[in-house]
Design goal:
391 residues, alpha/beta, FAD/NAD(P)-binding domain, 6-stranded mixed β-sheet, 4-stranded parallel β-sheet, 11 helices, 31% helix, globular, binds flavin-adenine dinucleotide
Length: 391
Amino acid sequence: MNKKIVIVGGGFAGVQAAVRLANQIGFQVQLISPLSIFEYHAALYRSATGRSPLEVAIPLEKFFEYAKNIEVVQDKIIKIDQDKKQIEGKFGKKYSYDELLLGVGNVTGYFHIPGVEKYSFGVKSVEQALKLKEHLHKNLSEKKYEHAYVVVGAGPTGVELAAEMASYLKFVAKRHKVPTDKFTIYLVEAGPKVLGMLPKKFTDKIEKRIKALGIKLYLNTAVESETKEYVNLPGEKIKSRTVIWTAGVQPNPLFAENDIKMTKRGRVEVNEYLQSSSHVYVMGDSAATKYTGMAQTAIHDAKFVATNLIRERNKKQPLKYRPKRPDYAIPVGARWAAVKKGKKNYFGFMGWILRRLTDLKLYRQFLPIDKALTTWRYGYEKYEVCPECSR
Ligand SMILES: Cc1cc2nc3c(=O)[nH]c(=O)nc-3n(C[C@H](O)[C@H](O)[C@H](O)COP(=O)(O)OP(=O)(O)OC[C@H]3O[C@@H](n4cnc5c(N)ncnc54)[C@H](O)[C@@H]3O)c2cc1C
């Protein structure tokens, strides 16, 4: 009898777990996700700033073309009934499982700051990234450009995006004969430095690079509110209709709605096998593990869970979870990146090469080499002129 594995979430953890279980004897797998694509978050900022979305949106079916035991289902799960070992989708369809693997990630958090959710742009999905790209392009092509473009949050996403916007906006401006000295990019951060989780020696160089790109960096500055025309900071308001919110995440509501135990920091409590209870595994951003919040951790978790399922099938003892320290690779503008690999740091062009190799390595975790290379190459393409904006 095949074991019925249901994986919820078509992101890094969910897809990786399914890839590991593909064509494994003894498993029948359903991968359930609301979207038909996998979104490669690490490069979304590039789609928002004029590069091809083909690099970041990979159809889920493409991963499992040759897998006989994987079924991809498009649905959003809203209920988990652990007694019946059954989950339910938003239109009432029920899915039974022997083992449930949850890789549902996080959702954007706005911390109840007035106006932020309503007026900000985001870059957490391909849809949001393309909406921002269209707006940026339209803005300059119709010469209704802003004097200020404001990125809120100087974590990896905010830093990468602000830096890439610096060159993209110049490119679009020149194309539409808008003087490039008419606008400024602001990067606003509530904490005392950029990339709060990384050592100051490392982030100092990134701050220097950000300033060299002409970006105005505001540290220790928490956004107070936002309106259609302004973003309000303590003691200053910046006039802008382009505010991009990258500053916060909160737990996926699926857990609280189904009484799954969370830590105070909003992650799901898991044991040494990444289980929140027997037959329910939690992987990736949702799990309270040491290096949670990174794609590499989500992949590590998924490999771990899949390995233990295979060991169980082979009547072997399960392994205990050991966290794996991720590398950090932060691109900051064209052909410049800061990379932290263990104790070693790399900056500039060398860092950028390492970052591109990291991207390729990540694609290789999911795709055969030819498909990984094709997808990866899209990241080299020049800026696309926004097709949605017809010029
Ligand atoms: C813009 C951006 C840039 C990033 N850059 C990097 C980087 O450079 N390096 C790095 O290591 N990490 C980076 N990260 C973090 C990385 O993307 C996450 O750590 C990783 O995506 C976590 O994987 P996950 O599988 O837990 O969640 P996700 O990849 O977010 O996947 C969650 C999946 O669950 C689905 N889902 C959600 N709710 C439900 C539901 N109720 N039912 C069914 N499906 C559901 C979602 O649609 C999605 O498919 C970045 C994140 C963002 C947003």
